[in-house]
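Problem 12. The chain below contains 125 residues. Write out its predicted structure in token notation.
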Amino acid sequence: MSRGSVAVVVPAESLESVGGSADAPLCFTTGKDVMAAAAAGFRAKGKELHLVANGGVQRFPTGLSITVSYVDTATGTAGIDANCAAIPVAGYKDVRVGETVEFAGVRFEVSALTEQAAELTRTSA
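Solution.
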């Protein structure tokens, strides 16, 4: 910003996804309403989230996308990354079954790793 400029932040009228760059602000906030909307985009506590291994991308209404970059069944590890507007917002390397990962304030336990997928079980409300 140039000298003397003022930044004005206007709250979103709606948390509904409209697509494209208009959704980007939803990924970069810790506002309670936005975090609640992000949490609501995941399955309920105790339910599984199946992520396709080796480059499969799961997209969510708030603009978040989660990718399993690799699953190594020999070592029992996986790489799981989250991005928003092509900006990395979370990255987990060499996670194992039983470990916790967190996306948009929602915690998951890695419940299974196969050659085809990483399965996460939501552990937070």
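Discussion. The longest helix spans residues 32-40. Students who got a different answer should revisit the alignment rule from Section 12.3.
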